[in-house]
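Database export, one record per block. Field names are fixed; values are copied verbatim from the stored entry.
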Amino acid sequence: AGRFDLSLRAASALLVTLCRMDVVQVRKDDEDSVDEIEYELTPTASVFLSDRSAPAITSPFIDTFKTNFVTPENLLQCARPVEGKDLMSAHLEESDEQVANNARHFMKHMDAQSYSCALALPVALGLDALTSATTLLDVGGGSAIYPIHAARSSPHVTGLVYELPAIKP
């Protein structure tokens, strides 16, 4: 609590919430003093938050929250109406550095939310271990990255993509 300038009650509420969300678990319990309880990341949280070699890592995306345009100040500014400017005009006034920052953030977001998940999904669903022919149908207007990685994970998986006419890229 002291390290993060929190009251003991606030720190306790935060840790209880993180435990219930399966982010942290008790590593060493102490019945005499709550100050002596030690926590660690759960195995699931370790895969998604700390193991940068894991296919489903989200940390590169999370790192951008403090280094790019998603800051508390910018979020607050976005919530306020800007008089006399439309959205396109505001984007045209961005500097090259802002545009590059936004692009880096978007790519890391896509990598963490789509590509990394698509790599991990076949293993999580056991598609990579199939021994009989299986077809995966993807209906929608996305990037088809999930059936592509499922098909790459095993010679027994065939991926079909059906693009809806109204949302074809």
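Remark 1: The two ends are 50 Å apart (CA to CA).
Remark 2: The chain has seven helices and four strands.
End of record.
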